[in-house]
Model the fold of this input.
Amino acid sequence: MKRFMHTYFVRVRYADIDQMGVVYHARYLEWFEAARTEMLRDMGIVYKELEQSGIYMPVIEAHCRYRKPVKYDELIRVKTVLGEVSRSTIRLEYKVQGEKDETVRVEGYTVHCFMDKSGKPRRASQELLSIFQNVQRP
Amino acid sequence: MKRFMHTYFVRVRYADIDQMGVVYHARYLEWFEAARTEMLRDMGIVYKELEQSGIYMPVIEAHCRYRKPVKYDELIRVKTVLGEVSRSTIRLEYKVQGEKDETVRVEGYTVHCFMDKSGKPRRASQELLSIFQNVQRP
Amino acid sequence: MKRFMHTYFVRVRYADIDQMGVVYHARYLEWFEAARTEMLRDMGIVYKELEQSGIYMPVIEAHCRYRKPVKYDELIRVKTVLGEVSRSTIRLEYKVQGEKDETVRVEGYTVHCFMDKSGKPRRASQELLSIFQNVQRP
Amino acid sequence: MKRFMHTYFVRVRYADIDQMGVVYHARYLEWFEAARTEMLRDMGIVYKELEQSGIYMPVIEAHCRYRKPVKYDELIRVKTVLGEVSRSTIRLEYKVQGEKDETVRVEGYTVHCFMDKSGKPRRASQELLSIFQNVQRP
Done:
């Protein structure tokens, strides 16, 4: 199965660095957020409009493995891949690499559910599911 | 005139440090926020409840002077002083010092207006003004 | 086996809230950091001094499950428990709960290795291991 | 005098929004940092390399005026203008605007000094000053 993939570039800021001189570990979750928002946009889903239509996709699980440090002013790539999709959850997988360098520095995943504004779980609409499924043809 | 003063303690985290090995300059604005929220609580104003009653006090101006660095794991004090209060704005002034050390590391101020949920400016209620004025007796 | 446990309190700030009106999911990793630093201090280990002695304990893995939202101005508890300890890694487990409320809102863990300043893995000293083992008596 | 100007684009993330549903006020200082780093790069100064050569330009003063809110998922422009330059300090001025909209949402400035790694003030080299002065021809 071909899995939908998106690459997001981000320049490491002064603000991202911690006491150890490398990117603070929580920052990757912000980059994952930015990366998946752009991935969705690429697939035709503007997350802001999804919210306006009453569908929210909060993170219910997040995981990171930190393999190699990322340093100040590096231009890095966050590669996002659409993982398992069901009517109740969706999984996204991330790999952080240097601009031209294939070493995986950090990898992780997030799992999202679908809910309405009040926080009640709901199932993804057929329309939404179709978008996800159409980009993952065998 | 005696001015109302509040001291807020904060422990510097790994996350607060930047590439230079000192607290990242934007972080102080977060501490100022925490400090003024506790100062208001001390005066009997729970900011969350103020919002629930329809009054918001957004920052319309912020200023910082960075005199000496603050480092990882320091326990620092943020001293907040209630400045000028009018029906349309309020000013708060901050000094950041070490736990036991009188040197001012950072100082700054924020100016806040009063507005409703829709973002329309409104004047502070007499009740709110009284609280502010009562703590600043000559 | 009795496992060493520490409770860290944190007041939710304006800055911690996201577009959904709840704590932004990456923020918990910062609170986990603050919580484990205080837990270590409680055990007699000042992390800053550990670093000065040449031992670093970077996060090599982090995981979060978000069960229930946390909101603005809540005073929450982060309960940290010392998990598995070996000569090469240490695991810490976290539960986030309201001030008086036993519902687990968020839970997670972090795994740390031991390394020197240059980033080379090293084994924990016997002294350090003893501290960890002494607080976990059967 | 023509003043050197640079435009930096940034997409507003979920993480940037606060309890009020607009960009948290401290976040602008991070964007100013990113904007001036890119402006310097445009002028031929890679800030990372400047640091490696022993010259640091820490923020010694920062100011913001918040005029209109910025919201989630907006693509905004940060226009940076090189202000007054002397041998001991440099001033940068920022305006935040929507992607296509001329309304100034936020404006501010930062003042930077020159120092060495130990934190001792030093004067800018003639070479560095020349770069700044060459981009500001009358």
Remarks:
- Chain D has one domain: 5-134.
